[in-house]
Amino acid sequence: MENFSFVSRKLIEWYEANKRLLPWRDLFDPYKIWVSEIILQQTRVAQGLEYYNRFIERFPDVKTLADADEQEVLKYWQGLGYYSRARNLHFAAKTVMDKHQGVFPKSYEEVLKLKGIGDYTAAAIVSFSWNMPYPVVDGNVFRFLSRLFAIAEPIDTGKGKKYFTALTGELMDTSRAGLFNQALMEFGALQCIPASPDCTVCPFDANCLAYADRSVSRYPVKQNKTKTKDLYLYYFHIHDSDHLYIKERNEKGIWQNLFEFPLIESDVPLTFEQLSRKPQFREWFQEGSAYDFKQIVEKRKHVLSHRVLYVDFYKVYVEKGLKNRSGLTKISTKELNKYPVHRLMQYYLEEKFEI
Ligand code: SF4
Question: Residue 291 belongs to what H/E stretch?
Answer without folding.
Answer: none
